[in-house]
Amino acid sequence: MTATLPPPERPEIDAIVEMIIYLYTESRRLTKGMASGFGLTGPQLTILKLLESFQDLSLSTLSERIRAQNSTVTGIVDRMEREGLVRRERSKADRRVVHIRLSEKGARLARDIQVEPMEIFRSALLSLSSTDLRDLLRILTKLQRQVVSRVGQGGQKKSDGDGT
């Protein structure tokens, strides 16, 4: 029986993982705190600000943008629609497609929320040089591809072929 050896010591990898977890956790904390001040959940705030930026999005595009399953986003949008924040409209080009748009009430609320957690990260990124931004994007894209290849697009761990 062969024992699996632990990965070699790589303190820089641990530091990077800790930074990624910190940034993720901090963005969720900021979103949740800001959202609750307006009577929203974090995902509702994210959807509100996305729709403010893009005017309308299909449910599947919205799901992709917030990295959630369609069924999860459907539930969030259902609640937002009941609260009068969004409305659904069938696409004129393809009747199977439903677009989600802000209602007047939702648009007003989106305008009232001046600072969003994404803006904190955007302003921090503005402090980087163009070269650093390109390098960071290139590295993060490679990292994303590696993660997706290991766990799959939907977050489910990929089977390694032995039934697990």
Automatic annotation (TrEMBL):
Sorted UniProt keywords: DNA-binding, Transcription, Transcription regulation
GO molecular function terms attached to this record: DNA binding; DNA-binding transcription factor activity
Chain ranges of the HTH marR-type domain: 1-145
PANTHER family assigned: TRANSCRIPTIONAL REGULATOR, MARR, TRANSCRIPTIONAL REPRESSOR OF EMRAB OPERON
Gene3D superfamilies according to UniProt: Winged helix-like DNA-binding domain superfamily/Winged helix DNA-binding domain (1.10.10.10)
Amino-acid biosynthesis recorded as keyword: no
Family annotation (InterPro entries): HTH_MarR-typ, Tscrpt_reg_MarR-type_CS, WH-like_DNA-bd_sf, WH_DNA-bd_sf
Pfam family of the protein (one): MarR
Protein name per its UniProtKB record: MarR family transcriptional regulator
PROSITE patterns: HTH_MARR_1, HTH_MARR_2
Claim: S-adenosyl-L-methionine is one of the keywords in the record: no
Coiled coil: none
Superkingdom, natural source: Bacteria
